[in-house]
Write a structure and sequence with these properties.
Layout (H helix, E strand, L loop, with lengths): L1 E8 L8 E4 L15 H11 L29 E9 L11 E9 L4 E5 L2 E3 L1 H8 L16 H7 L2 H12 L2 H12 L1
The structure holds adenosine-5'-triphosphate and magnesium ion.
């Protein structure tokens, strides 16, 4: 399984449809400050169902829609499509290629689709939940987050590792039981 294609339409600074074809292995996005590198990463998290406007570096969800520039008017919707190569069957769906699409309209309406069929956010979450690329997994490490981890104390760092490994909830439960 690997991410094969990412298309942004009206998402943040990407007013015109922008297509990024990805290959297996490591992809590097390079460019000057403010050119939209982090916006690409935001698009990836967003299409996979991210619900927190803060995680997307905005104040409200509407901020992901192209807000316009001096030469170009604002747009009414943002749309991101992510195609995942599933020829190894890692995703629990009978397609060798899966395209997830998320659309948000400025009037507040929103839509998800899997391979062109409209679906619920829950369906997207379930599709990705065991793949290691879903929301709760720490697959998107934001700019500056790495620095924060490196400068953390031992306790905080341990917490982060435990959370990533999925054992924090068990430790919390154990601590609660011992207090009783
Ligand atoms: P750096 O190297 O500094 O981290 P970057 O390449 O990661 O830069 P981004 O943060 O991805 O840059 O892009 C920032 C740009 O995106 C800013 O110019 C900002 O105005 C623009 N931008 C963000 N949201 C929107 C929006 N909704 N509409 C239009 N432009 C937007
Ligand atoms: Mg950046």
């Amino acid at each position: 399984m690997y991410l094969k294609n990412l298309t942004l339409r009206g998402f943040k600074s990407f007013a015109s449809a922008t297509n990024l074809r990805l290959e297996p292995g490591i992809t590097c996005v390079v460019g000057p400050n403010g050119s939209g590198k982090s916006n690409v990463v935001d698009a990836l998290a967003w299409v996979m169902g991210e619900q927190g406007a803060k995680s997307l570096r905005g104040g409200k969800m509407e901020d992901v829609i192209f807000a316009g520039t001096s030469s170009r008017p604002a747009l009414g919707r943002a749309e991101v499509s992510l195609t995942i190569d599933n020829s190894d069957g890692a995703l629990p769906i009978d397609y060798s290629e899966v395209t997830i699409r998320r659309t948000l309209f400025r009037n507040g309406g929103s839509e998800y689709a899997i391979n062109g069929d409209t679906c619920r956010l829950l369906d997207v979450q379930e599709l990705l939940s065991d793949s290691g690329i879903g929301r709760e997994m720490h697959v998107v490490v934001g700019q500056g987050q790495l620095d924060a981890v490196l400068h953390q104390g031992a306790e905080a760092r341990r917490s982060l590792i435990e959370e990533s490994a999925g054992i924090l909830k068990h430790r919390k439960r154990k601590e609660k039981a011992l207090r009783k």
